[in-house]
């Protein structure tokens, strides 16, 4: 029996999909709250572009490295177990960090180590989740399920910064960390309830060979190769500078308040939360459009990705030119819409055009390439933020993103979908 036959989705797919998406949503919101709380704590404590670069390296580089192995493991081991295990390890590490902080240990290196471990866990979990979705979902429902998944995550990202902002102002950091421990435990239970076919394990000696096979496979197909290359480039020139939005909010709009009617953005944590929420609201709208109308109307995933890059480029330029906090938040919302229009179609394209027993490695490569692109970009743009206006960095990053959308659009017209 082949791997494809072992993992072919049954007609009773809605329950396992609901369990997976719910479990991941619960795990994500707890992780996001804690991640925001830790990063904001470090940003307000240091107010340094170099510190932001170190934070980004710790939060992204381990995931990029581990994803190379995580992709192989997802193709040969239990994807269900690989989804649950990182949550358990991260929960233990988070408890340890809380105990250290509660007893007065708050050295920066301690936070950096914990961020790195959390990142490494994501390197195992991310390719496992993305390759597990087509195992339990019919192919004609993949775009809709991916879009629903993206929408749920975006809703969580709206709630997470808002809750983090409240908790940061009311609760000590060590206590906030237990939110992640609780939600991770619940998420593990949900995923454990999914019945999934077992996969044959591989020997440790074959891992490097499997990674090479995955790279050769991905590079053989122009469309898969183009997604990997373009994602890496966008992470370097666009996503990396976007991580400086916290510095832009902290520097460019310091002392400026914004009355939204239902609330007033006054403190630094309020503005940082609004920054994340504006982008997340855009992600929700874009994901909801794809999950409802888009899943029935749009069938060209590569074209959607190209349009997303064009929109992200134009909006990033506008973000750097925004004269007021209100204008900034509006553009940030539009960037979220553009990002959602590209993320779900990208996952769907790779799931549909990649063989089942190669999906873990391809998604591992996607995570690795994009994961390296972001910290490498921060190594360039983080130090630049110390010697030049952050707004200029956004303008440059946006301008350089637009040609990538044009390239994908032309490639999509010349190269048919991979079998």
UniProtKB/TrEMBL annotation:
Keywords: Cell membrane, Membrane, Transmembrane, Transmembrane helix
Membrane topology term: Multi-pass membrane protein
Cell compartment(s), UniProt: Cell membrane
Major location category of this protein: membrane
InterPro entries: MFS (IPR011701), MFS_dom (IPR020846), MFS_trans_sf (IPR036259)
Matches recorded under Pfam families: MFS_1 (PF07690)
Positions of transmembrane segments: 17-38, 50-74, 81-102, 176-196, 226-249, 277-295, 302-322, 328-350, 362-384, 390-409
Any one Gene Ontology molecular-function term assigned to this protein's record: transmembrane transporter activity
Gene3D superfamilies, per database record: MFS general substrate transporter like domains
Gene Ontology terms: cellular component: plasma membrane
Record-annotated Major facilitator superfamily (MFS) profile domain positions: 227-419
Protein name: Major facilitator superfamily protein
């Amino acid at each position: 029996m082949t791997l494809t036959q072992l993992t072919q989705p049954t007609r009773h797919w809605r329950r396992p999909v609901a369990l997976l998406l719910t479990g991941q949503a619960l795990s994500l919101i707890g992780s996001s709250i804690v991640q925001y709380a830790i990063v904001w704590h470090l940003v307000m404590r240091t107010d340094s572009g170099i510190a932001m670069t170190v934070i980004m390296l710790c939060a992204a580089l381990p995931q990029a490295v581990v994803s190379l192995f995580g992709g192989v493991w997802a193709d040969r081991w239990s994807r269900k177990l690989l989804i649950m295990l990182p949550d358990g390890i991260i929960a233990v590490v988070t408890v340890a960090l809380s105990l250290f902080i509660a007893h007065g240990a708050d050295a920066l290196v301690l936070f950096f180590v914990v961020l790195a471990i959390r990142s490494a866990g994501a390197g195992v979990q991310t390719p496992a989740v993305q390759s597990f979705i087509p195992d339990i979902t019919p192919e004609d429902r993949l775009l809709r399920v991916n879009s629903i998944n993206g929408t749920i995550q975006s809703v969580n990202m709206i709630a997470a910064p808002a809750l983090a902002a409240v908790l940061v102002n009311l609760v000590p950091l060590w206590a906030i960390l237990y939110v992640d421990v609780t939600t991770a435990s619940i998420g593990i239970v949900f995923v454990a309830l999914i019945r999934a076919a077992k996969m044959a394990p591989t020997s440790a000696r074959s891992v490097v060979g499997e990674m090479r096979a995955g790279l050769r496979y991905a590079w053989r197909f122009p469309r898969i190769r183009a997604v990997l290359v373009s994602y890496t480039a966008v992470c370097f020139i666009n996503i990396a500078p976007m991580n400086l939005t916290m510095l832009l909010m902290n520097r460019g709009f310091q002392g400026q308040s914004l009355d939204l009617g239902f609330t007033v953005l006054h403190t630094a944590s309020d503005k940082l939360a609004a920054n994340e929420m504006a982008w997340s609201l855009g992600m929700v709208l874009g994901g909801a459009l794809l999950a409802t109308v888009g899943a029935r109307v749009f069938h060209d995933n590569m074209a959607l990705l190209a349009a997303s890059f064009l929109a992200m480029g134009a909006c990033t330029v506008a973000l750097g030119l925004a004269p007021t906090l209100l204008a900034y938040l509006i553009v940030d919302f539009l960037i979220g819409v553009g990002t959602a229009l590209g993320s779900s179609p990208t996952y769907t394209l790779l799931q549909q055009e990649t063989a089942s027993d190669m999906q873990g490695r391809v998604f591992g490569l996607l995570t690795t390439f994009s994961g390296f692109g972001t910290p490498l970009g921060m190594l360039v743009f983080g130090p630049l933020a110390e010697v030049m206006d952050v707004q200029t960095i956004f303008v440059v990053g946006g301008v350089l993103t637009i040609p990538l959308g044009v390239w994908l659009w032309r490639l999509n017209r010349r190269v048919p979908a991979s079998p």
